[in-house]
Amino acid sequence: MIKEEALKVKKEGYNCAETVMIMTGRYYLPEINFSYSNLVTGFGGGVGRSRQELCGALTGCVVALNMLIGRDSASVEVDPIHEKIAAFRDDFIASFNHTICEDLREGYEGEEAKKMCHNMTADTVVMFFEYLESIGIKQKESF
């Protein structure tokens, strides 16, 4: 169900980072009432669609994790937060072998690349939601 919904959001025209944030907003942050996609638009396809930096789906997950577990005071210890984010990054690498958009897209062109990105983004949302559950972050009532 989550994967199909993420695919639907992606097919509506949202980029990878936006899709992750929209889905996280729906299921984990419904009390914050805004589009979520506006936080991460510039990360789709790497920074500014350069494909040179971090995958937008992974970036969306890092931003979402910061919203869910990030500190709001300098007195809060940062190491446990970084450990959780690093652990998800490790899971992402274990699943997709790379974190850089261009490396993830290697061997794909045109519609094939678009389809791969859509599926990888939806798979990332599923993996991310499973990770959130594994660290004790529960879904809230969605929209």
SSE diagram, text form:
Layout: H1 2-11, H2 16-28, H3 56-69, H4 79-96, H5 101-105, H6 110-134
Helix pairs in contact: 1-2, 1-6, 2-3, 2-6, 3-4, 3-6, 4-6
Strand-residue proportion:
under 5%
Report the C-alpha radius of gyration, rounded.
15 Å
Rounded to the nearest angstrom, the distance between the terminal CA atoms is 15 Å
One letter per element, helices H and strands E, the order comes to HHHHHH
Largest sheet: none
Tally the beta strands: 0
Percent helix: 55-70%
Broad structural category:
mainly alpha
Uncertain runs are none
The mean pLDDT is 90
* Number of self-contained structural domains: 1
- Helix count, DSSP H or I runs of 4 or more residues: 6
Global geometry: globular
Task: Report a brief summary of the structure.
This protein has 143 residues and is mainly alpha-helical. It has six helices and no strands. Helix 2 (16-28) runs parallel beside helix 6 and helix 3 packs parallel to helix 6.
Characterization of this structure:
The chain is mainly α and 143 residues long. Helices cover 59% and strands 0% of the residues. The protein has 6 helices and no strands. It is globular and about 45 Å long.
